[in-house]
Design brief:
72 residues; 3 helices
Length: 72
């Protein structure tokens, strides 16, 4: 994700949140994830996409970023 943050960081805000900090547990529940993963939201806070767990790679993350960019 660091490479994408460098190239797309002006268009998208990337946040890494540890489960259990802040409102992360509530956000996971709202996103209907089992435990952790990616929750991608538009500028209004509406969920655009989710990816469950840690079994995703660069290709999946790039797909989520592309969805967010088209929602702008």
């Amino acid at each position: 994700m660091n490479d994408l943050k460098k190239t797309k960081g002006k268009e998208i805000i990337f946040k890494n949140v540890l489960v259990g900090t802040g409102k992360s547990k509530e956000e996971i529940k709202k996103a209907k994830l089992k435990g952790h993963g990616i929750i991608a939201k538009d500028k209004d806070g509406k969920i655009v996409d989710t990816v469950e767990g840690h079994s995703y790679g660069k290709k999946e993350v790039e797909a989520v970023v592309a969805k967010l960019i088209t929602k702008k």
